[in-house]
Amino acid sequence: MNYQLLWKSAIFSVSSMMAMSAVQAAPLNVMTEDYPPFNMQGEGGKIVGLSTEVVEELFKRAGVEYKLTLMPWKRAYEDTLGTPNTALYSTTRTPEREALFKWVGPLVNNNWVFFSSSTANITVSSLDDAKQYSVGGYNGDAAAEYLKAQGFTKLQLAANDTANVKKLEAGRIDLWATGQYLAPYLANKEKVASPKQVFVFKETQMSLAFNKDTPDELITRLNEILAAMKADGTIDKINAKYQ
């Protein structure tokens, strides 16, 4: 019997188990973007917002140790796809993304809307109506991806959604495709007239997306806790702060 080989195999197995335990014991790396009022940077650099409050209460009840990081959406999305022990919010759960992550949610509702400038006279009653106009979105956003798939050819994608506030105001785009809460928030922040809601083109919900290596037991437990938060009125109380 090759005892040396057995000894090396045993050492490798123990080392692998220790490494796995270390990864599981490390704080969960939870990433998000600046997407008010759901997730954003507040005073002193603290990450705040509607979704953030839901996530913090969820992990508190679950006893999950974590750290929050704010970064550009595309980078956060790719990091969560490829790195174990990571999660990302607020993530729209689409058919294209369904198999890429494990999901806890929904955290919040967030309808996608076409907005025009406050002075424009644009009427839209369907997606086809909107295709004649130049439409602003941003790179990696689910709403922009959806419009691409629907055959929109006049999309103008910015690095982030804040850029679309001034593009709309300056007439560089006709419509802005974004979340129903985000447009008025950003307009107020940038001190421009609040844009006009033209057409709700999709009703959506946003969730926590976890890397595929996340244990199923954790996903099940978090979904159970989130359901309890909805049942006991916690989610409604958090939502009320932002209405």
Structure, described:
This is Amino acid ABC transporter substrate-binding protein. InterPro entries: Solute-binding_3/MltF_N. Keywords: Signal. This protein has two domains: 117 residues, D-Maltodextrin-Binding Protein, domain 2; 91 residues, 3-Layer(aba) Sandwich (D-Maltodextrin-Binding Protein, domain 2). The protein has a five-stranded mixed beta sheet, with helices on both faces. Strand 8, helix 5 and strand 9 form a beta-alpha-beta unit. Helix 2 packs across helix 8. It is of the alpha/beta class. Helix content is 40%, strand content 25%.
Q: Give the overall form.
A: globular
Number of helices: 9
Cα(first) to Cα(last) distance is 72 Å
Number of domains: 2
Helix content: 25-40%
The helix/strand series, from N terminus to C terminus, equals: HEEEHEHEEEHEHEHEHEEHH
Rg, please?
21 Å
Briefly note the CATH topology name of the largest domain. Answer: D-Maltodextrin-Binding Protein, domain 2
> What integer is the average pLDDT?
90
CATH superfamily of the largest domain: Periplasmic binding protein-like II
InterPro entries: Solute-binding_3/MltF_N
Pfam families: SBP_bac_3 (PF00497)
Signal peptide: 1-25
Organism: Aeromonas allosaccharophila
